[in-house]
Amino acid sequence: MSLAYLSYRPSRWLVGVSALLALPVAIADERVQVVTSFSILADMVENVGGEHVEVTSLVAADGDAHVYSPSPGDARSLANADLVVFNGLLFEGWMERLISASDYSGALVTATDGVEPLSFAEHEDHDEHGHEEHGHDQHAHEEQDHEEHGHDDHADHDHGNEDPHAWQDMQQAEVYVANIRDGLIAADADNADAYRANAEQYLQEMAEVDAEIRALIDEIPASTSVITGHDSFGYFSSAYGVNFLSPVGLSTEADPSGASMAALVDVIAQENVQALFHENMTNQSIINQLAEETGLPIAGTLYADALTAEGEASTYLGMMRHNARVLHDALAEPGYIKPGHDDHERDHDDHDHDHDHDHSEHNH
Ligand SMILES: [Zn+2]
């Protein structure tokens, strides 16, 4: 046995081990162990994976994924996982820290990979991130790559410049489902046909719910504004209508200052704000306080970043249906005909989105 062989052998062994770790682990008679960061993704994975998957959601129903603190049990869940699915776009920053802490080296699905992100600036105009406050005018925002606005501009918030709540637009959520399907196929090729068939069925149901939502929201006058707990409905607004304002920004980590509450009360006086809504996973006291200060009604609860444990909003499709119906019941005006009602193209809204962001850094 030559010396050359001996020195070669360990590196060959290492190559063999890393190839084995990268191999999708799916023993034929065992379900694929999938860990998701939050409940909406868990429901999507269960729909696409069906009987072939066992899903663990780190943030449970009604939980707030923005401010979650992972437990040692979460690290153990990751250690046993065959596939990990998370949202990305800095929705759950703790997830990436948890993954590196847990030595998980298996497959990762970033559900928003391929989504066209809305930038934070596009719907921050009415909260405390107002441009004037930071010395930026709108022109400057349009001229510069949003990525260059570092966290210094928003030092008190742990969010990016792109809105992560893309599941609130069901057509963007189709991207989530395709990514989940492809991740499951890569992890468990033996059941690829089942994953494809389940995903196709689920996408059809999503298209039906998307049409239901459009029909409901189309009966709400276009100028209508509402207020929710945090800035989580930008994609919903862009896709379906209704202007959403919130006392805090994208992140639930922020407590609204007295100044920003006062500014919001001013905005409420200027805009056609019709109602306030609670969110299931955020503190309701802010909305209650606004209701007291403005006399506006609290018209129900919307499901923003989490499913409920039971009831209609315990599934993603049910949650979306629920939100559209609650908004419709509070805000629709019988006989209202939406301008350009025949046009159900994607870009029927008033925003001029910049879809040219390079978000490849979010890929894993
Ligand atoms: Zn959120």
Automatic annotation (TrEMBL):
* Compartments (UniProt record): Cell envelope
Spans annotated as Disordered: 124-165, 334-364
Ranges of Basic and acidic residues composition bias in the record:
339-364
Q: What is this protein called?
A: Zinc ABC transporter substrate-binding protein
Q: Name one GO biological process term.
A: cell adhesion
> Among its keywords, does the record have rRNA processing?
no
Q: Which GO terms describe its cellular component?
A: cell envelope
Which Pfam families does the record associate with it? Answer: ZnuA (PF01297)
Give the molecular function GO annotations. Answer: metal ion binding
- Coiled-coil regions, chain positions: 192-219
Q: Family membership, please give it.
A: Belongs to the bacterial solute-binding protein 9 family.
Keywords, ordered alphabetically: Coiled coil, Metal-binding, Signal, Transport
